[in-house]
Each structure stands twice: as C-alpha cells, then as structure tokens.
Design goal:
Elements: H1 7-12, H2 56-69, E1 73-77, H3 80-88, E2 96-100, H4 105-118, E3 121-125, H5 130-136, E4 141-145, H6 157-163, E5 167-171, H7 176-179, E6 189-193, E7 207-211, H8 217-229, H9 235-245, H10 248-267, E8 272-276, H11 286-292, E9 300-305, H12 309-318, E10 323-324, E11 334-337, H13 338-341, E12 351-355, H14 361-372
Parallel strand pairs: 2-3, 2-4, 4-5, 5-6, 10-11
Antiparallel strand pairs: 1-7, 6-7, 8-9, 9-12, 11-12
Helix pairs in contact: 2-9, 3-4, 10-14, 12-14
Length: about 375
C-alpha cells in the first residue's frame, strides 16, 4: 500500500492482503499449525515454523491495524483482556502503576487482583486528576481509557504523556483507530478490544496492542511473552477480523452519526436527566474529544433516565430495536442496564449504556421515544 493511503483505502484493500497462489482478491485462510521442511531439513518458508508464533492470517490482520494506527508494530491477542494482561505482566514486583478510575470494570478488577498478587503499588485516580497525579507520582506505567466505559470521560492523551516519564498505555476501544490514533498524541502503546468496533459484527473475540517503538524494552518483553505463553489469535478469527475491517471506516462513520443524533435527541427529552457523550457540547470532555477525535465521537453513550432502577429497567424492557446484551461497537444497537451487571461499582441505578449501530436513525429514535413514553 502507498504510505500516504487513507484509512478507508487501507481497510478496503486489507492493507494489500490478497492470495498470491490463486490470484484471489481475498486472502486465503490457512489453518495449519505446523509448516514443511525440505529434504535437507531447511524450512520451506523461513518465517513459518509453528502456529504459536507464525501465521499469515495473523500477520495480515496485524498489518491492517498497524497501518491504521500509524504504528511501528502491532500484535493481536485472543481477547482485549489478554492484551492488557500482556502489558501488565512486564511489570516487576514492587513497581508502581497509575490507573484511571471509572473505566471498564473487567479491566479494573483484573488489575487490582494482579497488583495485589505481585505487590505492585496501584494508584487509581479520576480522569480529572490524572495529570496532577502523574506529575507528582513516580510510576512505571500509566493506563488510561478514552473515551471511558461507561462514563464516556475523555482524557487528553498528550497532557498525560507530557506529565510522566512512565510508559503510557491507552485503551481506545470506544474510539477505534479510525477516530483517534493515540500514538500520534504521545501514547507509547495503544490497546483495543478488537471484539468491539474494530470487528463490529459480534462474532470474533480479539485484542490488539500497537506500539510506536518496537525496539522499546517493554515491547520486546510483550513480544517474547506472547510467543512463549501462546497468547495469540487463531487463524480463522484473524481471517474474520481482516474481513470485518474492510468496512471499519464506513461502520464507524455511520455509528458515530447515529450516536450523535440520538444523544442530541435524548438530551432534549423530558424523560431524560442527562446524556454522557463526547460529541455533546455540554459534555465535560467535549473540547478534548474535539481535539483528538477525527470524524466523529464513536458509538457509545450513556443515558440517565428520570426515576429509579425500576424506571430504567422499564425503558430497557420496552426497547425493541436495541437488543439487551453486553458489548459495544457492533452493527446492531445494544442496550444494557449497567447497575444490574455491576451493582458493586456504584453505578447509578438509572443509567442505561447504549451502543448505537448502523440502523436507520429515524427508527432508532422512534424506538427510544416509544420506550420513554
């Protein structure tokens, strides 16, 4: 691919991935776990030895993401949590990490447990206080999520990078590389749950890490750990991911447009107390999002309906196009009552998390109107 190719071109052509053997315009699926050697025991292909480290399908999907991120190197993992774990396993005992609070609960819960077992000092801090904490606390790693899930808080990546010498890791799952290229704003490593918007079809579990410096010590540790621990994505999942990414820019554009329109509509609705969405001028992080998000503000938003838990559940139960399921970033719209899922986190009982899909926006708004009536 041309080095100046735009994201839509990179994605549509799968970064140049074809099948040279057949001439097919779609890359072939190669499920083999091992590879041939000739009569002299030399590898038929020097870069293919064993599937725990070597897979054409994996390399193809990684190359698409590497180009979309503007990264030096990209690695895929079997889930987003596996990618996060790979980063944290590089930390020595007794190190210090700063982690943004109010992010995806699965991340927080795992990090807390891991740090306790490894005697790592964990400093959890609200997004608004991150910069000040990074300036005063000597840390080995800083982990942030922007926009955050489910509060949609937006963090100025460059300001955090400037405030600390620690390795900065950004979870940008809700943005995807189409809306925010975190490495361009000072992040050392960017992470996504590729299960969500990057795949976008609710049928592949995957995680991804990309770096701006593949010779960095921490990246070398991640590379070795992934290979030896076997934390890689299978060839079929990688092939499916490559296929899905060909429409990634289109999907993100449509979902962002839909989410913006729905957020504006709900914010003005008499049955709604508030809407959390970076695209709203009333949102606390709107200016930051406007600076570091290009082409839209993503598909994720949270709604505070007027009333209590029963009122929120009544609205969720009445929605017809918004499927009641846990995830985000898919082509189908989803809705979730977060307090039912994680009541221990202090999430408001009247908060409804919404993942907006690619359906007709008139139909989506009408669905909310009838549910709120």
């Amino acid at each position: 691919m041309n080095k100046d190719s735009k994201p839509a071109t990179i994605a549509a052509h799968a970064a140049g991935a074809i099948d040279p053997q057949s001439g097919g315009v779609v890359p072939a699926l190669q499920p083999s776990t091992t590879y041939l050697r000739d009569a002299d025991y030399a590898l038929v292909r020097s870069d293919n030895i064993y599937a725990r480290a070597d897979s054409d399908n994996l390399r193809q999907a990684e190359e698409v993401l590497r180009q979309l991120e503007g990264a030096a190197e990209t690695f895929l993992f079997p889930s987003g949590m596996a990618a996060i774990a790979a980063v944290f396993r590089t930390l020595p005992n007794s190190s210090t990490v700063i982690v943004q609070s109010g992010i995806y609960w699965g991340t927080t819960a795992w990090i807390r447990d891991f740090c306790a077992r490894r005697e790592i000092t964990l400093v959890e801090v609200d997004a608004d206080d991150l910069r000040a904490t990074c300036k005063t606390t000597k840390a080995d790693l800083v982990f942030i999520e922007t926009p955050s899930n489910p509060w949609l808080k937006t963090v100025d990546i460059q300001s955090i990078a400037d405030a600390s010498d620690a390795t900065l890791v950004v979870d940008a799952t809700a943005a995807t590389p189409i809306l925010t290229r975190c490495l361009d704003f000072g992040a050392d490593i960017v992470m996504h749950s590729a299960t969500k918007g990057i795949n976008g079809h609710s049928d592949v579990l995957a995680g991804v890490l990309s770096t701006k410096a593949k010779d960095a010590v921490i990246w070398g540790m991640i590379r070795d750990d992934r290979k030896m621990a076997g934390a890689i994505l299978g060839p079929f999942e990688a092939w499916m991911l490559t296929r899905a990414m060909r429409t990634l820019p289109l999907r993100v554009e449509r979902m962002s447009q839909n989410a913006q329109a729905l957020a504006e509509h709900l914010l003005a609705h008499m049955a709604v107390d508030d809407v959390f969405y970076p695209g709203l001028p009333s949102h606390n992080g709107h200016q930051t999002a406007k600076h570091q998000m290009t082409g839209g503000y993503g598909s994720l938003l949270s709604v505070l309906v007027k009333g209590d838990k029963d009122d929120a559940l009544r609205v969720v139960g009445k929605l017809q196009l918004f499927l009641r399921a846990t995830s985000l970033g898919g082509v189908e719209s989803l809705v979730e009552h977060r307090h039912t899922i994680e009541p221990h986190t202090g999430i408001p009982e009247n908060l409804i998390r919404v993942s907006v899909g690619i359906e007709d926006i008139g139909d989506l708004i009408a669905d909310w109107d009838q549910a709120l009536a």
